[in-house]
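Name: Protein glutaminase domain-containing protein
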Amino acid sequence: MSLQFARAEELSIEELIQRNVVDACDKLNKPKTTCQVHKELKPKKSAVVETAAAEAPIEETLQAKNLNRCDSSRADIPAQTEMTSYSEKKFPVSRLTESDVQDVFKYVNKQKSRYLIKDGWAATGVCAARSHLIADDIAKDCKVESGKVFVSPSRSAATLWMFKNSLWVEAKGRKFRWDEFHVANVVYVEKNGQAEPYVIDPILFDKAVPLNQWEALVKSQDPSASSWVTSSRAFGQSDRHEDDPNGFMNTQRAHEAIEKAQRDERLMRKPRP
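Structure predicted for Protein glutaminase domain-containing protein:
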């Protein structure tokens, strides 16, 4: 009798199944498991984007200073600074003045129907679609390249990471809840020779705010929540494989998600016969 079969006979049926079937499946599915994803994200509790040194001061022409950043007649293109994603990919993000980033925010915030910026559960459920459309629109109309910052609720260590909390946020007199993740757009703003990350999130704020201020609010009820950044190409939490800074920016999915949310909301509010 060979040594291999002798050892196999000493193992119970359960041990053989564990060794030959369960372990093999675990190895096969390892790159796709939720647990692995959260294991990678766990250390990134905060400060997912470091403040960077500005390569060169922003120099605006007189015309640029007198025009809104999203004015169609404004021809200058903002300087850029590299940002690094969760997967160590580098991608360019626009570096703006404080005035310009607030111009971009106002451009976004006034389009409440397009981005579904309003009260109600429908607006809460389309943050991925909203962020995707905003990234595409400000690139075309404001010549601003943005990244995306995600926050996902923590899992309970006491339950082997099987059960997640939710992100509970109260802002602008409203309460929000995200069970999977929340995402918004991030750019750099030059301040005192440094490029500081700012977030454009019209659901939670009335202006663009520093990343640490945004994170403090989103994580206020779940300080152990995980944060990470991607380029503008990744759509949602499960679409990080799409995080190709040079990839095609497909907005069809985003349009469909917002249109569906608007239809569902209308049906929910429709008076009963």
